[in-house]
Amino acid sequence: MQFSTLAVWGGQDPDPQTGAVISPIYPTSTYARADLDEHRTFEYSRTGNPNRAALEKCLAMLEHGSQAFLFASGVAATHAALSLLKPGDHIISPDDIYGGTFRLLDQVLATAGIGISYVDASDLQEVAAAFRPTTRMVWLETPTNPLLKIFDIAALAELSHRKGALLAVDNTFATPYFQNPLDLGADIVVHSTTKYINGHSDVIGGCVIIAKEEHAGAMRFQQNALGAVPSPFDVWLTQRGLKTLPLRMQQHEKNAVAVADFLNSHPRCESVFFPGLKTHKNHEVACRQMSGFGGMVSFRIAGGREEVNQFVRKLSLFSLADSLGGVESLVNYSTLMTHGSFPQALKDKIGITSNLVRLSVGIEDIEDLLYDLRQALA
Questions:
Q1: N or C, fewer C-beta in 10 Å, the chain?
Q2: Are residues 143 and 100 in the same domain?
């Protein structure tokens, strides 16, 4: 089956008891057994739930993975993937990553005795030089948050495996509709399902998808032992949102292309970051490993914090808020919001400047979005 069909039907057969086309919600904590020797598929909802099982099956199919595991947030999913590391191990990460991931690495894993090296992952020689005998994982985000850097997944997978390490990829920005890291050699894919997977800004969630069965036990243990799992209703909402992912991503990208072109020609914009622009440093890599460029656009406005503040105050359709990937357009000031946990020296190094603005371009009419940006920049 093709992607759009899987998004609607994957793991979501009509209910066998009633014939309901839409899966019912199972808001139960426990499941009855007939006797001591009976072991049902579901016994306790922290361990497993019919809604969770259905969505996990669908996401595994969409990412071409072996199994998927849902968690209560994207950060919880990231933590579960990183739980494959143990004290004394070493991980390599891009220096341009989501602020929540940096906080998890820098203030949780580092204090647990795990070594971390931050690199420019677009430079394969720099990545190769960062390997140690104890390196067990390379972590990627591509496109990155907020500068939309693109990293060569296939090349980094080959390098990681040659060095005896796993490659994990946060695929939140691209979604499985535009990019499938497991097909390019990655071992693990992570999503904040809060974002495009759900797509309606009303649920927090995360997911880990694995390429090989050998990691299934560890992920299932994380779900059951730590209990950071989503509620049946949150899963049901996410499953409902996932059904329209292909349609939404097509409109997100169409609008983002128009917004990037507009900003790229505007005199008040110093630079625009969007992998669909031919001027993007890694545009060719993006064309090779992605089937589309997503709905995120970042740019630097002429000036500094005050000019950014004037800009966001004048916007009417783009709401100033954290998060991204919903049907509505959002604007984010990364240096204070998503990347407030970054030390200033690291912000300066990777370019999270006082005039950097990140847009999550929604699915509204493009003429309305361009008018809103035009009047705010005037």
A1: C
A2: yes
Task: Report which secondary-structure segment, H or E, holds 117.
Answer: strand 115-119
pLDDT at residue 165, rounded to an integer? 98
Choosing from 201, 216, 242, the residue where a domain stops is: 242
Q: Is residue 319 located within the same domain as residue 337?
A: yes
Q: Sheet holding 166-170: strands in order across?
A: 67-71, 206-210, 188-191, 166-170, 135-141, 90-94, 115-119
Instruction: List Cβ neighbours of 152 (8 Å cut-off, separation of 6 or more).
Output: 122, 124, 282, 285, 289
Which residues lie below 8 Å from residue 128, measured CB to CB, with a gap of 6+? Answer: 159, 163
Contacts of 264 (CB under 8 A, 6+ apart): 272, 277, 279
CATH code of the domain covering residue 300: 3.90.1150.10
How many domains would you assign to the chain? 2
Q: Which two tokens stand for residue 336?
A: 């204070």
Is the model's pLDDT at 11 over the cut of 80? yes
Beta bridge partners of 299: 272, 357
Q: How far is CA 17 from CA 14, 257, 265, in A?
A: 9, 46, 58
Which residues are known to be catalytic? Answer: 46, 98, 170, 195
Same domain, 74 and 134: yes
State the Cα–Cα distance between residues 62 and 56, nearest whole angstrom: 10
Q: Which CATH number covers residue 200?
A: 3.40.640.10
Q: Which of the 8 DSSP states describes residue 106?
A: I
Q: Provide the pLDDT confidence category of residue 39 given band limits of 50, 70 and 90.
A: confident
Does residue 23 register a pLDDT over 90? Answer: no
State pTM to two decimals: 0.96
Q: Which domain holds residue 326?
A: 245-377
Q: What is the pLDDT of residue 41?
A: 85
pLDDT at 34 (0 to 100): 81
The H or E element containing residue 102 is helix 99-104
Q: If you search the block for the tokens 């495009």, which residue do you land on? A: 196
* Per-chain mean pLDDT for the chain: 96
- In this structure, the answer to whether residues 117 and 17 fall within a common structural domain is yes
Phi first, then psi: what are they for 23, rounded to 5°?
-55, 135
Which pair of tokens denotes residue 170?
């946060």
Q: Judge whether residue 166 has pLDDT over 80.
A: yes
pLDDT at 13: 86
End-to-end CA distance of the chain: 48
